[in-house]
């Protein structure tokens, strides 16, 4: 007998083999078809939202996060909804999957895990979403990668500052003095703010914020605010940051924060559908709160711009927001008079402050955070303590309504309102000063603690600065500064006018100097003439005196000689006669010695007098001549006295004429010189102004170039980043292609194995068919013989009359016959199954051989994909290298331009 149990086991093994081969064949055929469908060398499309991510999100997240059912305000069935995010803020950070909130949730790295109460998405789906975000969160295959929206810097502080920061106060570096917008007329002053630690004031303008020095009132620079009109300006607690909030009414609203030292934007939060009307930055600089017509206070993180909290308790437009100086509390006020205080970090309601009957227009904290001041359209100012939220002081501040209030560092308050007046108060509500009225409603006010100046602005755009110590005006600021070109034109016109005036004054001064020189010379000549004629007259008088003395002396001598002659002329003849007679007598008396002595004496006297008479006779004409000459000299001297006296008198008269002209001429020369000096100084100032504005225009041009090269660098950096992403994708595709080759090689080996296994199965099935056919033939003969035996046994039983032994034998024979019949039927059935399996195996062999051929083709195709992808990788490398080179060159140009901007000389002057 044959063992049919072994036959059945063999048959089941064959069936399982055939089925397994069928499954393998089908699988490989599917792979081959997939390979056939993908053109060799084609680049895989960029992973994008529409083609790759949306199907996953619809399948896994769409039931809860769709247009109709926005769980957590998040719609993941559209690109816009996904990128916009939900109640917790943006959920996608383009270029950084690891920093994207959605990816953290679906990878179960953060709570709540998504999908809820389910396992993570399959790794393949997560990989697709990760590559999509890292690739820039493309919407379609043709989209460009989005730039990350995170802030450039993290300015958060470790706790709220408790005093003045160390180091110099934060003041702006060199900024652009070119206004973004200049209009013919000014409009309402919508925002003012002063730095807590520096002499710096910020003024709102049209699409710009203007910075001024609060001591000198010099214009320091412009911060562009293209978002629209700034309705709020706030300095951070350290003074390093300046917040501006505003936008375009009914269109958009945003909050921007600048680094005050560099003028660079460092934080941007909010994407309102209306202008932001209230905002503030926390003391530790980790949060920004904003509000407006949406009646919702939104609190954002400055670290990543994510939305932290939404406060929806206000029933009307939010007008005022203020963080406490210690960062613990946040106060908010609305148009309906509603005012709330919230816990700064948890956003839980802390107190509801009821008291004002009209809009809350201003909120300001005392420096110790224990007292909150509020102003309202009801005209009042209220002070609130924070332990119980009680109103500790109220006073009527401005008739018609108070528009703003602010605490000073020392605890005083400044306010302004519809009465067009800015005022200074103490905390008891006592008015310390009321400053001169504005031409229109006073809207905004601030106090500079560093200079003790009060700055306020009104509806017409006027901005006045006063000294808070005595209320005296310091000067004015403008929210609408002239353009640099206009400033240069005005400076050039002023310079031309001053240069013309300088020429006029110089000509006048030249004439005046010449006149003064002439007058000085005339006086000097006249004085010299007076001195000279005075000396000459004095000499003439002395000469006349000398001549008179000479005449007198000559007259006396002449008279003496004449007198002598008059005496001697009659005496000498007498003496001669006497001497003759005496001599005659002596001759007669020679012995008379006395007579002889008398004759000798008489002769001697006669001789002497005769000689004297001769001498006098001779001298008299000489003395007469001397006398005459002396008299002539005296006449000449007298005439000289008269002449010199006339000359002296004429010189004095000339001096009296020219001397009074000297001082006016000198004074006029000095005055014209002063005028020349003054105009010269003005010309120098104007020349410096012209040079300065020309310099600032050149600086602005360099800033414009810098902005252009920065934008170009950003674009090229984006291209480089995209090229890097493409290179990474190409390399990943190459890795996949290499894996595909390995898979295809395994598939070829598996297909060949399947062919061989199928052939072996056919051989086994063929042998099994022959064996089963032989078995059936044997069983057919056996059954026929047994049937005859059974028939004869039955006849024997009948003939034996039912003999028990015979009947037992007959029954035994029947059992054997039945069993053989069953074996025969089973063998025949097995034969049919073997034939069917053999037929199927032959069919499978054809399929397996075809599949083997397909697998070989798929292997060749996969190898070609590797070749093509290698080429694609090289192209991507070349593209990335070129893009990086261009980006690097652009970056170097940015650095060079930055150096030029930094090195551009700055000329001094007050704007």
From TrEMBL:
Pfam families: PSCyt1, WD40. Residues 61-117 form the Cytochrome C Planctomycete-type domain. SUPFAM superfamilies: WD40 repeat-like. It comes from the Bacteria. CDD domains: WD40. PROSITE patterns: WD_REPEATS_1, WD_REPEATS_2, WD_REPEATS_REGION. Residues 1-34 form the signal peptide. Residues 720-761, 817-900 form a coiled coil. WD repeats lie at residues 311-352, 353-394, 395-426. This is Chromosome partition protein Smc. It comes from Symmachiella dynata. The lineage of its organism: Bacteria, Pseudomonadati, Planctomycetota, Planctomycetia, Planctomycetales. The gene is smc_7.
